[in-house]
UniProtKB/TrEMBL annotation:
Any one Pfam family match given in the protein's UniProt record, by short name: MMPL
Signal peptide boundaries: none
TM stretches of this protein: 230-247, 254-277, 283-303, 324-348, 360-382, 436-458, 646-664, 671-695, 707-727, 753-775, 781-807
Bias (Polar residues): 133-142
Region annotated Disordered, chain positions: 106-142
Gene: ydgH_1
Protein name: Membrane protein YdgH
GO-annotated cellular components: plasma membrane
Residue span, SSD domain: 249-381
Length: 838
């Protein structure tokens, strides 16, 4: 098949070039804009049966007026002085800030006023002409200040030094449209000279809120994607020029992969627009890095074979055809191994993992096809100029055995200086394989222990991903300086009981009993405040019902009206929902911990146990209880991703093991290789924990929760070529040189190759560190270090040392079960580290 393909490409290379260019133009033109087909968020990708998701659905039905979407929080504070906010500061909020925010919320109303006041001209646009605001309507649904009748009192800090202005939005916190709203408010606060003059001296205004965090996350993700792609291209160009020392030849893999990436992303956008595949915002970064890393390998493999064929005195085009015929199956096997490993992520329950597995596995097929057709066509186009200024008299070392793209790519980089290094390593392994294996293991093992000890110490926080100077991070610190840390994301308990009417005395008494019991455990549970129908403004505020009893006349009427508003805020009163009307109530708990911190999840578990134990009989029977809010959502996210991690780890290891057994036909050796891969992963994860803790020990909250999953899957799937290359080369050498000398000979010939191969792969992965998202920086470091560890230590030292001990009979009678039966004599040789070199 590949012989036919090679002849076809060489014969019709012009047609292949035109087809690829037309495909690039046509598919890119047909593809919708990327931002329109990707889904933002984290919690939106959780399974629909997650408890917090079910709770949010009930909340939206029971309290449709209280949008459970997102908000921008404006912090108005006066830090200096003992008096705190002054009356003129509060007047500024109500008379200056709020009207300006209303202008942003309803720009068309203020434009109509300006239009009425200005002279009308006949050349103006007709009345039916839609304005820019019609195309982009505001997503602000409500603005709440300290004067709000329901929650206004809660917006004032206890120290009276800060007041919050809540701008409620109708969109989710990671919606793209939020960016314009946040930017409009930022421009008002920072760049509107007229408004800035109205700010009272000493008054500080900062932006916070989940929507501001979402805007900063999207902006950082876009910047990271652009920086990653730029640095990936620059690093690949640099490494290719160093490898080839032929500028035209270096451009062929680069152009091939560039076209593959653009077409793959466009196809994914089209499939996403049709609803065939799901795409999350940021998935393009993973696709780009994987395709550049694997694609360059494939192209280098093909070009390396082409050089070998030229050295055999074939014609230029014959060499291309022979290269495709020779390496086609190897490329397909390599890509298939990687696609199979990464594709196991499709079995995850968390949507992002599923989508990443599908997108990366599908995209690899494009770079494989391009390396077999576009790269040869480009070679035909360049002709002998491709190798300028080099000549064809320079020969490339040829290795026997089952060849892989990574190995041949690495052979291009092999130089004489590497040979001496691995000669020394080989001699050392011959003298003391046991000591070297043990000492290497002991050096690495502590980091594996760190990984196991810190495995659950992951960060699920959004703010921890962002740079400290981002507006949302600065604003959140401003809020937490005057309010409990949990105020940025209350934990909401929803009680649904068809037998209890929460608007009457019985329902009120049940909630009051629960509240009193929780108050007794307030300090133990880390609860800063409790707000519900009986304590609408918190545990320190007076009872509104008691206050109303002492009032008379108009004041009492106003108080009763306010109590009714408060009741509607905490008890479902939606007339269109008879099932839930008066049968659903909410209780907001303000925790002392940051809702996105790891400790908040432990706190949530303590609260759940306490609530379950403290529920009065009236509330316990026939009740459904849901927990919603940031802490509840990340707790569910952790549970889902923990299960996915265990499931995918087993599937990836199992699938790779099966592939190894099929290719190597030695189950025991294959099992050891799998163990070495897993050990390499643990060490890498442990070192990543240690490095990022050392960089910022005070603020380090753990690795981003996505790092372990993507590190494990990519590191094992992409790095499997190194295992296959080393073992197949050992098999080849053992046929003529014996078991131990065969291992040494293979190591001498492949040690530099495997390690050099890791350099270009690590360079590609390290481009992830170019962005501002901390999670991507951590993943980039972990992948780059993991590849280097795998290629410099695990493959050339840990694996050969074990095989030497195995073939020398160090394991006694167990050796025949461990894969050395055909080499062991009747009496095993038990000596431990022979001083003699064979």
């Amino acid at each position: 098949m590949f012989r036919v393909l090679g002849n076809t490409v060489v014969r019709y290379w012009q047609i292949f070039l035109v087809c690829w260019v037309l495909a690039l133009i046509g598919i890119s033109y047909a593809a919708p804009e990327w931002s329109t087909v990707v889904q933002n968020g984290e919690f939106a990708f959780m399974p629909g049966d997650s408890p917090s998701i079910q709770g949010e659905k009930l909340f939206k039905r029971a309290f449709p007026d209280d949008l459970l979407a997102s908000s921008i929080v404006i912090v108005v504070r006066r830090e200096h002085g003992d008096q705190g906010l002054m009356p003129k500061d509060l007047k500024f909020i109500e008379e200056k800030l709020k009207p300006k925010l209303e202008e942003i919320a309803h720009p068309e109303e203020h434009q109509d006023q300006d239009k009425t006041q200005s002279d009308q001209k006949e050349d103006l646009a007709p009345k039916g002409d839609s304005s820019e605001q019609t195309k982009n309507p505001s997503n602000i649904s409500r603005i709440r200040t300290y004067t709000d009748k329901t929650i206004g009192d809660l917006l004032q800090s206890e120290d009276n030094k800060a007041s919050l202005v809540i701008v409620e939005l109708s969109t989710e916190f990671l919606d793209q449209s939020n960016g314009k709203t946040v930017e409009s408010i930022e421009n008002l606060i920072q760049h509107d000279d007229e408004f800035k003059k109205s700010i009272e001296p000493g008054l500080d205004i900062a932006l916070s809120g989940i929507a501001t965090v979402g805007r900063d996350m999207i902006r950082a993700a876009n910047q990271s994607a652009e920086a990653t792609e730029l640095w990936t291209v620059l690093l690949v160009i640099l490494l290719l020029i160093i490898i080839y020392r032929a500028p035209i030849l270096a451009l062929i893999p680069l152009f091939t992969v560039f076209v593959s990436v653009k077409i793959a992303l466009s196809v994914l956008a089209i499939l996403g627009g049709w609803g065939i595949v799901g795409l999350f915002s940021g998935i393009e970064v993973y696709v780009t890095v994987i395709l550049y890393g694997a694609g360059v390998d494939y192209c280098l493999f093909l070009i390396a074979r082409h050089r070998e064929e030229l050295d055999k005195e074939c014609t230029f085009k014959e060499a291309i055809s022979n290269s495709i015929a020779t390496v086609g199956s190897a490329l397909a096997a390599s890509a298939g191994t990687t696609m199979c490993g990464i594709g196991m992520m499709v079995f995850a329950e968390f949507g992002k993992f599923q989508q990443a597995g599908v997108a990366m596995a599908l995209s690899l097929s494009f770079v494989l096809l391009a390396s077999l057709t576009l790269s040869p066509a480009l070679l035909c186009l360049a002709g002998r100029l491709a190798y300028w200024p080099q000549t064809f008299s320079e020969r490339v070392a040829i290795s026997a055995g089952w060849l892989t793209p990574s190995s041949v790519m690495a052979r291009l980089m092999q130089r004489n200086w590497t040979g001496s290094i691995w000669d020394s390593v080989s001699q050392a392994l011959l003298r003391s394989p046991g000591k070297i294996w043990l000492s290497t293991f002991l050096v690495l093992f502590p980091f594996a222990l760190i990984s196991l000890a810190c495995y659950g110490n992951l960060s699920y926080g959004l703010l921890s991903e962002l740079p400290s100077e981002d507006p949302s991070v600065v604003g959140t610190k401003a809020v937490q300086g005057h309010y409990p840390a949990g105020a940025t994301g209350p934990l909401t308990l929803l009680f649904k009981n068809p037998q209890i009417n929460f608007s009457d005395a019985e329902g009120r008494a049940a909630i009051e009993d629960l509240t009193d019991d929780l108050l007794k455990q307030k300090d133990e549970l880390g609860i800063a405040d409790i707000r519900n129908m009986t304590k609408p403004f918190g545990i320190g505020a007076a009872d509104e019902m008691e206050k109303a009893k002492d009032l008379r006349g108009l004041a009492k009427i106003r108080a009763i009206s306010r109590i009714k508003l408060i009741k509607n805020y905490y008890v479902s009163s939606e007339p269109d929902d008879e099932e839930n009307q008066n049968h659903v109530t909410r209780m907001d708990l303000i925790l002392e911990k940051d809702p996105f911190s790891h400790d908040s999840m432990k706190q949530l578990e303590r609260v759940k146990k306490a609530v379950k134990k403290s529920l009065p009989p009236d509330l316990r029977d026939n009740s459904e209880l849901f927990y919603i809010g940031a802490t509840a959502s990340i707790s569910d996210l952790k549970n889902v991703t923990d299960q996915d991690q265990a499931r995918i780890d087993i599937l990836v290891l199992g699938s790779v093991f099966i592939i190894l057994v099929i290719l190597l036909r030695r189950p025991a050796i294959s099992a050891y290789l799998i163990v070495s891969v897993f050990f390499s992963y643990l060490v890498t994860l442990g070192i990543t924990f240690a490095v990022f803790w050392a960089l910022d020990p005070h603020n380090f909250t753990g690795l981003d929760w996505k790092v372990p999953m993507f590190l494990f899957t990519i590191l094992i799937a992409v790095g499997e070529d190194y295992n296959i290359y080393l073992i197949t080369r050992i098999d080849e050498e053992q046929k003529t040189k014996g078991p131990v000398d065969g291992v040494i000979s293979a190591l001498k010939n492949t040690g530099g190759i495997i390690s050099s191969c890791g350099i270009i792969m690590a360079g590609t992965f390290s481009s992830l560190m170019a962005g501002t998202l901390v999670g991507m920086q951590q993943l980039g470091f972990a992948l780059a270090f993991g590849v280097l560890l795998d290629t410099f230590i695990i493959r050339p030292i840990i694996v050969p040392a074990y095989l030497i001990m195995l073939y020398r009979g160090y394991f006694g009678s167990w050796g025949k079960y461990l894969g050395a039966a055909q080499f062991l004599e009747t009496k095993p040789q038990p000596e431990l580290d022979s001083p003699h070199v064979k």
